[in-house]
Amino acid sequence: MGGLSSSGQVWVTRQAGEEDIEDCLVPKFKKLETLMVWACFKGRHKGPLIFWNKEQWGKTIKATSFTSHIVPHFFQFWQEQSKLQLDNVYLQQDGAGPHQAAPTQNHFRTLGIWGYFIDWPPSSPDCNPIENLWRTLKQRIRRRNPFPTTNTALRAAIEAEWAALTADELEALVDTVPTRLREVNTLTACDQLLNTNKTILDRFGWLRAVIRDIKNGSAFFDFFLFSLFPFPFFFIFWLLFFYCILTLHCPGSR
Q: Against a cut of 0.70, is the pTM above it?
């Protein structure tokens, strides 16, 4: 078991005789530079993996440098995939500043692809399957033996692990997207119910807790307890309950 102090020092709790076990050791080497990497994929196909050149392109990614150094690779991949699909591929990107900046949007319009971007909600990395790929890469790099201790070795490790990702792994992530979106729609519907009935729920705090339990899928016990309340409260609860069920399961919420 380990921990990190406020000063950044690493502490390890171990038993006697475990001092040489790898999990109880902290490697000592020169601090690695933070590498910024961009990549994309579509279905079973990996796109280009691009390492941001801080010395030549700048330490931060701005709209002008993004459209100059990233978009050409991305646009070529989009053209290739659209040709394979015999139709234009729809695009998804998060709300990062360089993605949403006016110069970037104008550049996409010039390329004729702005209309193919999906309207993506902010702060929703759990809906974006490429985030899972980044996590997988980090986990596999941490398990590499020997662990990369130089910037050159780290870059080589990233390239090797990206190349090792299989088409089946990519497709499995894509297959999870409908489930992710349904779960988000379900949570959103419950949040809307809570906001719509805010006045009533503010008066009956326990009712708000019950509706939240519906959202979390653990409301059966609350239903049982609720039947012990007088009829008016019972009646109000079931009205809101059926409203919530209809909201969650109506075709428009999926």
A: no
